[in-house]
């Protein structure tokens, strides 16, 4: 829910424009902590009418080109955010300030829209491994096959040695920490 209703905003804007109270006194009269929102409402009302003051029901998606135009207008002309907002019929100077900041840090790429939330979980397995294998040349495929056969051969030799004489195999492959613990200088 919005902090201030549309009727309240409209009432304060009209009272400011046709009354004799300033921003601070009007804000104080209605127990507002700051006069800044009132200033923004009046400014928006002057440039866009009452439709600019009303709360938007849906967030508007701006194109990258629109964002770039607004940012470049601000940077090249030296116009304030408020002036640029009026020029491009935006309602929030903070939005433009964020665009300028992102543009300075990341360039045009930063202004592109990104999907929000977590990526969806795909039920299909990724096929990236198959693509990598397909890009190998015939020679690379043969080298890979040779390496796999060498590994398999080594494994089979060790398995055969273990089966023939398990005690000797275990003695040969004891961990070195046991022999270190028998030393005299070891604490």
From TrEMBL:
Source organism (scientific name): Rossellomorea vietnamensis
Top-level division of the source organism's lineage: Bacteria
Stored InterPro entries: InsJ-like_HTH, IS150/IS1296_orfA-like, Trp_repressor/repl_initiator, WH-like_DNA-bd_sf
GO molecular function: sequence-specific DNA binding
Record's compositionally biased regions (Basic residues): 113-129
Domain Insertion element IS150 protein InsJ-like helix-turn-helix: 66-119
Biased segments, Basic and acidic residues type: 130-142
Organism ancestry: Bacteria, Bacillati, Bacillota, Bacilli, Bacillales
SUPFAM superfamilies assigned: TrpR-like
Family: Belongs to the IS150/IS1296 orfA family.
Protein name per Swiss-Prot or TrEMBL: Transposase
Region Disordered, residue ranges: 111-142
Gene3D superfamilies: Winged helix-like DNA-binding domain superfamily/Winged helix DNA-binding domain (1.10.10.10)
Pfam families the record matches: HTH_28
